[in-house]
Amino acid sequence: MAVIRDVMPAFELFQPATVDETLGLLERYGADAWIMAGGLDSFDWLKDRIKRPAVVVDLSQMMDLRGVRDVGGGLEIGALTTLTDLVRHPAVQQRFGLLAQAAELVASPQIRHQGTIGGNVSQDTRCWYYRSGWSCYRAGGNICYADSPTAVNREHAILGASRCVAVSPSDTAPALIALGAEFVLRSRGGERVVAAEDYFVGPDINITQMTVRRPDELLTTIRVPDRFAGAQFYFEKIRDRQVWDFPLVNVASAMTLSGETIQEIRLAVGAVAARPLRLTAVELAVAGKTRNEQTAAMAGELAVDGAVPLRHNSYKILLMQNLVKRAIRGGPMQGEGG
Amino acid sequence: MAEHKYIGQNYTTPDLVAKVTGRAKYAEDFRAEGMLFTKLLLSPMPHARVIRIDTSAAQAMPGVKAILTVDDMPEPADSVDDAGRVIRANTRAERALTNEPLYEGEPILAVAAVDEFTAAEAIEKIQIEFEPLPFAVDPLVSLRPGGPTARTDGNVWFRPPTPPAQPGQPPPPQPPIDVKDLKWTEEQFAEAEAGRLPMGEVLADQWEYGDLDAGFTQAALVLDETYVTSNTSNQPMETRTAMAYWQNGKVYVHCSTQSTVQTVAGISRWLGVPQTDVVVISEYTGGGFGSKITSAISLVIPALLSKKANAPVMMRITREEEQYIGRARPSLHARIKAGFSKDGRLLALDFFGLSESGPYEGGNDHNATGRIVSLLYQPVAMRFRGMGVMTNTPPRGPQRSPGGAQGVAVMEPVMSIAADRLGIDQVAIRRINAPEGKAPFNGPNPQGVRPHVTSAFVKEALDKGKALFRWEARKARGGTRVGSKAYGLGVAVAAYSGGSVGFDGLFVIKPDGKVYIQSGIGNLGTESVSDVHRVVAEVLDVPWEKCEITWGSTSKHLPWTCVSGGSQTAHAMTRAAYATAMDARTKLQEIAARTLGGSPASYRVAGERVAGPGGSLTLAQAAQKAIELGGKYDGHEAPETVNVFTKRSVAALAGQGLLAVARDVYPRDGVTHSYTIGFAEVEVDVETGHYRVLDYLAVADVGTVLHPRSLGGQLLGGSLQGIGHAMGQKWVYDQQYGVPLAKRFYQTRPATILDAPVHMEWAAVDIADPETPVGVRGVGEPPVGAGWAAVANAVADAVGHDVFRRFPVTGDMILTSLANGRRVTDPLTANI
Amino acid sequence: MDFLTWGINPWRQPVLTHISWDLFWASLFAGVMFLVAHASYMILAAHRKRSAEETDAMEAVYKDLPDQIERHTFMARIFHWVMAAAMFVLLLTAFLPIGGIRFAWVEWHWMAGLVLAGSIIYHLVHATVFLDFWSIWVGPSDVPELRAEVLRALGREVPGPKPGKYPLGNRLYHTASVVVALTAIVTGILMMNRIRTPLFSRNPYLFSDATWGITYLLHGAAGVALVGLVIAHVYFALRPEKWWITKGMLLGWITRRAYLQHHDPERWRLRGGKARPAAQP
What we know:
heterotrimer; A: alpha+beta; Uridine Diphospho-n-acetylenolpyruvylglucosamine Reductase, domain 3; Enolase-like, domain 1; five-stranded antiparallel β-sheet; four-stranded antiparallel β-sheet; 12 helices; 28% helix; 20% strand; B: alpha+beta; Aldehyde Oxidoreductase, domain 3; Aldehyde Oxidoreductase, domain 4; five-stranded mixed β-sheet; 22% strand; globular
């Protein structure tokens, strides 16, 4: 059978208007159903005819999962809230600026108008070998093309690689982890709530999925607690182009200080592993320490402990180290000279 | 022309409203009764032979109308040049479809069906088997002893010598281009281990002038540097979509092309039909950057399918298909040995360059590289050696400053290193070596004479830019660091060909008093389609509002026009427009003299009148008179000098008014070139390696400014394209399977508008070129190299020269180089 | 049911990726069915042992033998249990994720594989140098025993050869395990080139797609076969009438009576003269 790309194949399209309707469809079609939110990840797969779902469940008509609600100091974000709406929401801007910053650095303005927060955290990896439709581990095969003696893997993983070296492309995920968010998954069988960092899964455990969402489940809501509202935030995304580009590394942190002493911190890094990594070892190490260059340097070194570079991505170790440093320090190195 | 009413003034171009309102129709927007759609089956392998095709299941599908393979295609045909010499066809030439694909993504066959969905489904039903063949996606790999070759019979093109003419016989045609398997030795490759480009045998492209050895002996500083640039796809906004149908024996092709008139010849040759049976319709083109100079050979697919299916066929090319068939700038592997005197003069330059030229002809950019480098830095002695090496990657073609941009990109950092080593200001070293006046370039011709340019005001441009950019004031910040931020300043000079000669202009002044200008120029986004005709309004002193421009279809009686490529148009067609306007003036004067008495010379054309001793005529009246007079006045006679294409148009338009037609026969001493100087300031974050361009200025030496707004668009747009080459744009290929990994924009990373420098300005010296009547030169190309190299030089100024030796200069290179105290990026491997 | 799983390579050529995991379920099912069938048979059918009188007579002849006959040396037992542990880790890490129980299995799997490979190398050396190497293998001389065993299994009273140190079923099992486990180990070690381990620099292109396909197929087939073999092994080890063998593997010795009851002293000669009785019956 010859292969053709860039023409969408036929599928049965459902555009449910309510969560219940959607869950019914997911229960009925299970793994045969493809959930589409903003479509930015989906259309690539569908147009390339690589993923061939029998059924596409388009969530664009589901208005009840759009929007941000202020809930007792925290937020309840409907999974279908567009990134633009998220960025513009006053509560997000004022109290959870970390999330606003992260969301605003996603892709391009057009993509942010269409892309949703649920889609952004649930999107598939952008490994260009995997995206080419080849039978790699992640596609159910038994080979990683990205980690071979000749592979071009500048954008791949330095941590948590297990056979597959793909990375998480999400910018909002590290921010949500740093904010201690919870993800609400609903199915016909009920509801379960997972911590942001537990929503993601690495290839060691599930090599074909990026998240723990089951086929019959729908990510409906993201809850951001008030714990870090108005805390010291740091977000930085490094990418090759200033727009429409996935992160090479991104970092998100939320910190509470007492004077110059770090009281509590949550820190997450994206695009270095298949899942956004919460750096608990660093969090523990810096808690109670004075926020200064020394602590930052220690944190940076600790963060990349165990990192293994591929042929073309040793820079990611330096980059991650420096970004973690900045997250602790609160910004780029200042001052004269250097 | 001292005081200009129109030349050098901004105006609203006649296509603007349609473009911004979406009314403009591009190739894809046309529909025809019963139109079918076609989709392509592309090769999954970099090099293979099709050993079996079974289309029966596809053909059995309802809605599938025809399937086209290379067996339905005409053989590559010989052509005849203007002098009547036969040019033998390359039997290995690209034919749009193939049974021996030479790159992943090469079209194998096309299916026409009632819609694209059906065509795609049909393609999936086709059983096709390939036999994989050896392949190369790296030119150096192909040159290694025992290395694979892109074609079964070799990896480099060469032209066998023409056999001597037999006595009494006409000279035999040049033999067709052939292929050779060229390998270098292990000893030569030993240098590659140290990251230096090996310099083995090259076949034909070499020249030399001056005493190179003496130059190096005298030099106070000798540098030996290797640089590798990236392959970059043209990827214009509009893909090379085409729709075709046949009517009364003529083929009508709606296509995306940079040139309207000149596209006819290509289609005629590709399809094997006479030029008079080809109609090209292209009202709007979404760019080409050199990849659609005469549209694209892929348009024969809908044309031939249309014949086979007996229905119009639309072929919409997707973004990914465009990546395959849409042409790209070849990478350049360059080794540069340069000797400088202690005051910065380039005494000796030994330039060695390999183009990665893809599997077909085209992409031998290195020749232009030699030419441009020799022009820009005026080396006292120079040797140039270059070669195109074939790889199993998409076909290359011209891309905005082909060869020139790469030459500037690899040479400019060498100039920067020299300036720093010699303690000379960066602007100063370029000024010291800058071309001036009738500056020579290239190697000597067979008569031993080096050609020269028409003019060069590079020094003036450098001075102007230095002042506008406040170079001296800013210089102090270059190389300094504040926290994690390092600042750097860069300047780069760039040049490219700037115009051709000998084309025709044609317009009619009708009895309604309006001037109806026929424009054979493609509407590719540069605005030259209307800009050049401002000359007519200027010369005749007619309000621009009374000039109507007709363009976009060769059925509309257009004059013989240059291709819109190589920055020719503004120069060539202002000359033609000027010649035609002068023809109109002469005819108006003659009509006035014949009608009102007196000598023609005593009549003046101005203010929509021709006036003199006997009184005056309005243009409307003169047009009416022209019809009455007939003959040459209303186009019933055409001058012998104009092209046959123009003559046909003249005949068709005859009798409608005063018909002005002329060929540009103005003398020109030298070859026209244009220049752009780029100035850039960058801020490099040494903690991330990433950088941004804070400020950019392009200063043009492009002769008289014709249309400031479109000149600015060209300068800044071209510069940004170059900045993209500096910062991120590239191809990535998997070496194991020889297939591309970076296919989408987000992967190939051309610059976006948000990568544009925070401040971006342009200026022009606005000095007329002395060898053309209106003083205008072309501008499209030189800005690319200027933007590219100015940014690279600024990065080097900020963090040191020892950070990059390949392009694009990405943050990872900077970060790892700074951390390791040396470059760690793979120096020579292509397409990583 | 598919037997093989195919993928496509970057050239869009079909490549064999592994056996269909349906085969795992099939093997599991077959193993369990065998177990049920055998157990039913054992419950329903008569089963023959050497008669007590016969054994008593032999006890008299072989009264010089110690009460505890060493069956497995300490090192042999260590080998067996290490191997068994490795095998369980291998099978569980391989098949639990396929069964839907997700955990980070890869490191455990290849490390257990290395342990298994190491223990087998040890066993080879040990068996060659210290043990009666040939006692475990099956050959043409075993045909009468095979015949007798089959007939006995069918409930017939048959005189004839008794097993040497290892009963025929035991030896047949060993042979099958050797073939299957070696296949799994050799292919497994090759497959380690495809993942990141300290052993090899990762190179998925070491072999052609077709060779890799066969390697994965063999590994998968061996793994699936091991599921069945291990089920059978565990089943027999736990059967009451085989318990004396299992105990031997745990403690290292069997009773003299068990020795005489189940073995032919001529075919399993005990060392150090202890096994040779002075008198002939």
